[in-house]
Amino acid sequence: MTLEKPGEGATMLRTFTLLLFCAGLSLGVTPMAVMPSQPELWIESNYPQAPWENITLWCKSPSQISSKFLLLKDKTQMTWIRPSRKTFQVSFPIGALTQANTGLYRCCYWKETGWSEPSKVLELEAPGQLPKPIFWIQTETSPLPGCNVNILCHGWLQDLVFMLFKEGYAEPVDYQVPTGRVAIFSIANMTPESEGVYICRTHIQMLPTLWSEPSNPLKLIVAGLYPKPTLTAYPGPIMAPGESLNLRCQGPIYGMTFALIRLEDLEKSFYLKRPIKNEAYFFFRALKIHDAGHYLCFYYDGSYRGSLLSDILKIWVTDTFPKTWLLAQPSPVVQMGQNVSLWCRGPVDGVGLALYKKGEDKPLQLLDTTSIYDDTSFFLNNVTSSDAGIYSCHYLLSWKTSIRMTSHNTVELVVVDKPPKPSLSAWPSTVFKLGKAITLQCRVPHPVLEFCLEWEERATSPKFSVDGDFIISNVEGKGAGTYSCSYRIEAHPNIWSHRSEPLKLMGPAGFLTWNHVLNETIRLFLVIQLVALLFVVLWIRWKCRRLRIREAWLLGTAQGVTMLFILTALLCCAISFAGLCTGVLTEETEIIMPTPKPELWAETNFPLAPWKNLTLWCRSPSGSTKEFVLLKDGTGWIATRPASEQVRAAFPLGALTQTHTGSYHCHSWEEMAVSEPSEALELVGTDILPKPVISASPPIRGQELQIRCKGWLAGMGFALYKEGMQEPVQQLGAVGREGFFTIRRMEDKDEGNYSCRTHTEKRPFKWSEPSEPLELVIKEMYPKPFFETWTSPVVTPGSRVTFNCSTPHQHMSFILYKDGSEVASSDSSWASLGASAAHFLIISVGIGDGGNYSCRYYDFAIWSEPSDPVELVVTEFYPKPTLLAQPGPVVLPGKNVTLRCQGAFQGMRFALLQEGTLGPLQFRSASGNSADFLLHTVGAEDSGNYSCVYFETTMSNRGSYLSKPLMIWVTDTFPKPRLFAEPSSVVPVGQNVTLWCQGPVQGVGYILHKEIEATSVQLWGSTSNDGAFPITNISGASIGRYSCCYHPDWTSLIKIQPSNTLELIVTGLLPKPSLLAQPGPMVAPGENMTLQCQGELADSTFVLLKKGIQEPLKQQRPNGYRADFWMPAVSSEDSGMYSCVYYLDSAPLAASNHSDSLEIWVTDKPPKPSLSASPGTVFKLGKDITLQCRGPLPGVEFVLEHDGEEAPQQFSEDGDFVINNVEGKGIGNYSCSYRLQAYPDIWSEPSDTLELVGAAGPAAQECTVGNIVRSTLIVVVVVALGVVLAIEWKKWPRLRTRGSETDGRDQTIALEECNQEGDLGTNTNSPSSVSQGTSVEQPVLI
Hints:
Elements: H1 8-17, E1 23-26, E2 40-44, E3 55-60, E4 69-73, E5 77-81, E6 89-95, E7 103-111, E8 114-115, E9 122-124, E10 134-139, E11 149-154, E12 160-166, E13 174-176, E14 182-187, E15 196-204, E16 207-211, E17 218-221, E18 230-234, E19 238-239, E20 245-250, E21 257-262, E22 270-273, E23 279-284, E24 293-300, E25 313-317, E26 325-329, E27 333-335, E28 340-345, E29 352-357, E30 365-367, H2 369-373, E31 378-380, E32 389-396, E33 411-416, E34 423-427, E35 438-443, E36 450-455, E37 463-465, E38 469-472, E39 481-488, E40 503-505, H3 514-547, H4 551-577, E41 587-590, E42 599-604, E43 614-619, E44 627-632, E45 636-642, E46 648-654, E47 662-669, E48 681-683, E49 693-696, E50 705-710, E51 717-722, E52 730-732, E53 738-743, E54 752-759, E55 774-776, E56 786-789, E57 794-795, E58 801-807, E59 813-818, E60 821-826, E61 836-842, E62 851-858, E63 870-878, E64 882-886, E65 890-891, E66 897-902, E67 909-914, E68 922-925, E69 930-935, E70 944-951, E71 958-960, E72 966-970, E73 978-982, E74 986-988, E75 993-998, E76 1005-1010, ...
Parallel strand pairs: 19-25, 27-33, 41-61, 57-63, 63-71, 65-72, 74-80, 82-88
Antiparallel strand pairs: 1-17, 2-3, 3-6, 4-5, 4-7, 7-8, 7-9, 10-11, 11-14, 12-13, 12-15, 15-16, 15-17, 18-20, 20-23, 21-22, 21-24, 24-25, 26-28, 28-31, 29-30, 29-32, 32-33, 34-35, 35-38, 36-37, 36-39, 39-40, 42-43, 43-46, 44-45, 44-47, 47-48, 49-50, 50-53, 51-52, 51-54, 54-55, 56-58, 58-61, ...
């Protein structure tokens, strides 16, 4: 291998590489991330202080249950366990650890495709020792300096103490006592001081002297500065031993030194190469096996400032290709007509793959390296019996090599012809309504012999049906549950299909609406109040008879009850005002959409005699349709066709014969459901056109009525007939497959039976059979309801849509229609007063849910007129259109503007939308692929963002994406644009800058002007919305003042105003100035500051700049050599990095170099410093610790404070403080702060506290006198509380007796005369009488 090995420079460069990475590389085996399929292995023991006395190994799969687990020892001995049931984890008892049990252990679990990859290696050493931990690293951020790093240490056992050691330090640098088996050591803000070699050790908490063996060492190295290079291999990354290989490392900068590293051996495989321009070649003359591995490269300059690492390139050196594996998804056993994916993967990256079938020499399909990285697989579409066979995949090389191809695993693809599982749906929904049943519909796209319905919750006998409909009632709540169905076909009556997906039916209690619950709660509350009032009245009467309660107390009780009922009435009225107690019924009904109905039509290439060659087409509005099925007379299964990209299928019939006559309809078959049948197409003869279908909405007196005649074939004429008339009442020319006849004003004379016929376009006409008759009868109807959507009717898939149908009439039921078919209903509620309304809800709109919606309401006998339709458009199916304004997007008030929406397809319907409005402004149907929307006499209110969408009306209003918004300005003056420079208007000579002219008006060009020049510098057209004017390699000729303005490409009287003026200053032409701050770089908010910029030439203009701001802050032309920039009442926003430049009056804008940056701090207190300890925060016996306090400002004095001491610990100018631990006085929490020598009275914020611990470690810190005092005080308080509680407990019986006597007296006092009708001269000499008499004389407050 002809590579340059470094000599003395290698040591320097290797030291540099330690600052180049932010990733962990093991010195032994490179630690890899745990794959999701890798199991976890750990140890459990019932002897925590001596775990080797009884050991049990546990193996756990990460994400799935398994039926078999395998334990490997030293890669040879195997123990496997088959648990009684599938589980996530199993145990392998080892017992006492002996010499025979020591070794390397791993475990695997069984997956569907074979054994998983093994777990991490567990090393059991001699008895009396803890297992050796494993050590790896995980980066939290991208590989840059200052990133955070997590180092993970796995100890295999619970309740261990984890210690992190660093090479060169005798004591641990960190420790963890986690609750699990893994400790995470975090290194925040990686710096060069953080690099080094780390190891991890563990010990038992109760036995700190029992340590494990050290883990494998881990080296940390840190990130780079220049952009990363690219590393490529020639002729390829996979070569045989002895062949030559060239690795090319290419960067963007010339003259750099390049270096190549192999990650598997970082210390020994470090190669340097002088560049050829901006690249270097590393040549391997004769490859060896040990040259294989992961390579990366970087480059660096003479100061050892290096680039980021290139992407890792894996080099394979082998004489035999590794074996590939092939997997069939979803299964190697596939049904005829379905699709299957063959996933081919191997361990070699950067190589293409080829799919072969046994018995064929050429590959069936190829995958290049890009497809493999995109996780693409081989795909077999619509498999047949010819696709069955044995498949394998091989590597596909694009270069020559002597590597031998090994055998590959194979997959046998079996194609079976088994009926698919059916779909199960519920009508009208899956929720029972009171007193109503649900019909379960089991459907498949072909004829069956019998359907079977099973109830999963109950072991009852299944139900059977020929048509697949099962009626389920909910008597006594016994209908709710989970159902599934299956079927059998006539050809194989003993074979039942797979069961359908389960469908759950729920009772009405599970889906009570909020309004219903609230109404029932209010009713129950009123009933409780009435019952409570009754009991109160009875209680008062009973008390009055016995005790004669005072009238005042009775009045107070009555007032309380009255107030309670008043509050109840107010509450009910408030709820009633909200429409919840009484008023509008707001019941929400979820719309359970069936699978969208497909469209069926016919096409022919003989327009004068279509029956000579007829093809039936079926098209579905759903994008998830898999197949189409054409049925004849409801039973005869004609054919099945897969869905094309246009979601349609053709069924060629050829020349019509008598066998073709009958009624046809088609279904679309999705993955889990079958659609409703299309409208029936009836072929009645061999030389007769298909029979048309006639339909119309209910006729309304005095209103227009449209009668629809569907003729199935395009280019046909239409004729409308009325019963009793020989001649047609209306005729239409060739207008497509449908014709619409209009009755302008429906009257009684227009009632009757109507039919329609179709005919060929040219004479002599060939006619179809008449359609079935349509009876038009004018009936008395309620007025049409109010129908709207709560949001815009133009929605995206997945949106929530609520239709509101309301009427002033009470107790009405509502029906929701989609394209003339009923899709949902809402029953009337007699408990609600006032107007009726129903809310129909689509929780998640699908592509097939679009269409024309309307609603009607009815009572027992009378229906309402249909509501006005709402066109629901579901977008994001077709490509988005473009919206343009003619003549332009800026319009004078009172003028007209035309918005043209340009789509991708013809025959669509277009809608115009404005931001802020609920629904579309205008609709337009177009025969071409564009539509024009006229905004007439626009005003200021017409300004805003507009967009458009197009959709097809025959297939569920499937629409396009919304166009890009177009802003329309109604004004007499163009808005003023803004001119700015990136990255700044102050640019060093030789650099590039882009001048941006941007304004709010879109679709308009810009023009750039330079002062003192008659013509514009550049003209930018209107083909883009960004006005970018790049200036490359800037020089003195680019200096000047610039402005820009709009440049419309149409004639307009609208005024155009220029932008702001931009001064382009070019630096690097004069010596740099100096910048100082007075009184200093740090000031308090609200104070004044002066920045002094000192130049070397007189008669100059000085410019003040701030980092992060594109434009100059201030400009000043002083009389001398210095400019003073006064900054009054500064605030925190004025903090930052400042610089200045100057230029001569004789050469304006040709400026000097930037001054040195000056950082300004605007704060009451200086920023807090950082505090660190060297060599660590743990005292070693007889050794001191140096605390280092560092701040961002120069010229400061530091002070160190120790918790518990009032006076500061130490003062220092360099920030270093030496702490000793004599008599344990050095441990505790420390913090530091500083003050500026110029402002000795202003101290900074204290730093974060830093804790120093004793030599015994954090687990055994000294028990200080303060801790003893606190513990003693807590014990004294607890004992005192216990004594007080005991004394009070002993007093309790006496207090209870005394309380009962007092209650007797109070009761006697509270009552006056118990019975006024008794004898007033009754003897009162008894003890009770004496007691009563005594108590009456006491003053009592009532």
